[in-house]
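Milestone 3.1: sequence recovery, worked example.
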């Protein structure tokens, strides 16, 4: 395996690094889980899009710049290293877009992707329901056939950023009497359409990072079905594999956090023989291992491969890396790890990051679900009792 970057990749990294150095605001944007922060993040996304950097690996006609997937990984490394804002449209860019590239129509891609690249339309994922989280195939929300489209009814929950987002994508039971994975349809809907009620839910930090979505006979045209009606499960696997296996959490996120942890250790401890030094080294090695593994994944995809159930190994790895990395930081800080706000060490990134890291083993499918997938679909072990 050749781990040297080619000239084009080096030039791309240099260009991205220079642009970010000149354009990333010195002060972090307010949290995108507030109305003010959401608007500030949208404006930042439009600026990225103007520079051709919002979705580098997409075709230029949709707002990308035809970069390779490897260059996308490079972009992400530079983006996080520069301390740029988290992507407010991450569920659109990293989950809905790959799904549209795989299963959407030309019309859908042309209509939806350019507005997504500019974050003129921000997307939320509306999969989970009160009685269907891990077992998403037990979902009850329905899509009923009507003239020219579908009427959606039911309740979705835990929808990240839905409090301020514009549209959502989700699975609905469209064949009455069907069971489990059969008879589901994958649809997009407008969060401000008649019949939609969005009720924000505060997260651990008190901000409305999630929302419940209530749907009461919400009309959706046929043009907003992704893939074939009744074939939603197959389409959903593309979304899930991207969420777990590649795009939602790229190595750049963990490499930059691991570098910051090394920096923190040098300031707070600096003793190479301490137990914490070992944990810092483990976190750094874990981030680097994930980077190398991801180079392998994108090389495989560029050669025509697909993301499959091995995505679950990936998800399990990065979610635990994130928890361990933040726990180590808090232990290095001792009681000061409790401080938040501007006067806190590193402006409070460690306790905030720790709280969010705790969600990693839950969202995108819990640890137990990833382990079930690994056991059954990768290792070929017998199915456990359900
Ligand atoms: C920060 C965050 C953001 C999220 N964002 C979104 C979003 O944008 N859109 C969205 O649709 N959802 C979102 N979710 C919801 C998330 O997908 C669900 O919480 C998750 O799938 C688990 O479902 P549940 O909460 O219903 O738990 P349950 O499914 O009720 O699980 C409870 C416990 O039982 C275990 N369990 C369940 N079934 C099995 C089994 N077969 N074998 C072994 N153990 C099992 C689980 O692992 C878990 O420990 C988000 C969640 C979090 C925390």
């Amino acid at each position: 395996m050749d781990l040297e970057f080619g000239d084009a990749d080096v030039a791309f990294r240099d260009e991205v690094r220079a642009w970010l150095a000149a354009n990333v605001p010195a002060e972090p944007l307010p949290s995108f889980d507030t109305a003010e922060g959401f608007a500030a993040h949208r404006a930042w996304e439009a600026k990225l899009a103007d520079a051709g950097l919002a979705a580098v690996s997409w075709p230029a006609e949709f707002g990308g710049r035809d970069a390779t997937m490897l260059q996308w990984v490079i972009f992400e490394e530079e983006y996080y290293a520069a301390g740029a804002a988290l992507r407010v449209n991450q569920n659109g860019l990293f989950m809905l877009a790959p799904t549209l590239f795989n299963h959407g129509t030309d019309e859908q891609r042309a209509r939806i992707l350019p507005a997504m690249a500019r974050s003129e339309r921000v997307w939320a994922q509306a999969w989970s329901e009160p009685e269907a989280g891990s077992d998403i195939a037990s979902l009850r929300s329905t899509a009923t056939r009507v003239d020219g489209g579908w009427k959606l009814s039911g309740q979705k929950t835990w929808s990240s950023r839905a409090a301020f987002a514009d549209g959502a994508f989700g699975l609905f039971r469209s064949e009455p009497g069907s069971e489990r994975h059969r008879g589901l349809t994958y649809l997009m809907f407008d969060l401000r359409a008649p019949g939609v009620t969005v009720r924000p839910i505060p997260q651990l930090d008190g901000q409305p990072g999630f929302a419940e979505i209530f749907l009461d006979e919400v009309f959706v045209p046929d043009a907003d079905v992704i893939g074939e009606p009744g074939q939603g499960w197959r389409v959903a696997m593309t979304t899930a594999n991207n969420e777990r296996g590649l795009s939602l959490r790229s190595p750049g996120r963990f490499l930059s956090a691991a570098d910051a942890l090394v920096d923190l250790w040098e300031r707070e401890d600096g003793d190479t023989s301490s137990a914490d030094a070992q944990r810092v080294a483990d976190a750094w090695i874990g981030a680097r291992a994930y980077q190398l593994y991801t180079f392998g994944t994108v090389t495989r995809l560029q050669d025509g491969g697909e993301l499959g159930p091995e995505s679950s190994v990936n998800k399990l790895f990065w979610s635990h890396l994130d928890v361990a990395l933040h726990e180590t930081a808090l232990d290095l800080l001792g009681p000061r790890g409790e401080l938040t706000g501007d006067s806190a060490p590193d402006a409070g990134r460690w306790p905030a990051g720790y709280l969010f890291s705790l969600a990693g083993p839950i969202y995108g499918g819990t640890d137990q679900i990833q382990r079930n997938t690994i056991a059954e679909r990768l290792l070929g072990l017998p199915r456990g009792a359900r």
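The CA atoms of residues 221 and 348 lie 45 Å apart. Residues 125-128, 133-135, 158-160, 359, 362-363, 365-366, 368-369, 372, 386 surround flavin-adenine dinucleotide (CB under 6 Å).
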